[in-house]
Amino acid sequence: MFFGRNLFTSALLALAASAAVSGLELLTAHLTCASGIDGTVSFTVIADYHTEVSLNFKGLHKGEKYNYFVNQYPVPAGGDCTKTGVMYDPFLAFMDKANYKCKKNKPLPCAMGDLTGRAGKPLKGKGREGVSDIDAFDVVSDQGKYQFKGRSVVLFDGQGQLVACANIVAA
Q1: pLDDT tens by residue, 18-45
Q2: pTM exceeds 0.85, yes or no
Q3: Which residues belong to the signal peptide in this entry (predicted)?
Q4: How far apart (Å, rounded) are the C-alpha atoms in residues 143 and 97?
Q5: Which is the CATH superfamily of the domain at 24-170?
Q6: Nearest to residue 38, comparing CAs of 19, 24, 58, 54?
Q7: Which of the ends of the chain has fewer CB neighbours closer than 10 A, N or C?
């Protein structure tokens, strides 16, 4: 175990060093809630208009499907997730909600902040203690005016209840 942990730490340090040299930007949002959900959404900005997203959550309830989005505003100092605005959508893709369809293989009609749609599926809880629910996918984002940094990630349960939120910050 000691060797594995050192190897993992070395890999993270190498990735961070590589990011510094190649111009990659690493962003992260760490979400927790009173029910025991604990997770990280990581964004690796590869280049303008290309960001890799990875999810690592523990404590998701077995069988529950969770939707997750980038919202317009950061979480305020008091931690009120309801003050983060709505799903980040600078190009108004979600304006016509009745006809909105976001699919993994067709990301152009997607709102920029629709991470669930861009992943192609909600995050599903496996309900095993200490086991991470992990997913990874690519999204299109822009490093200029439309970047994710400084916004927030929100997590909703299957009933549409806001469960957790966190600010997206430099890792």
Answers
A1: 343 345 778 889 988 777 888 898 888 7
A2: no
A3: 1-23
A4: 27
A5: Superoxide dismutase, copper/zinc binding domain (2.60.40.200)
A6: 58
A7: N
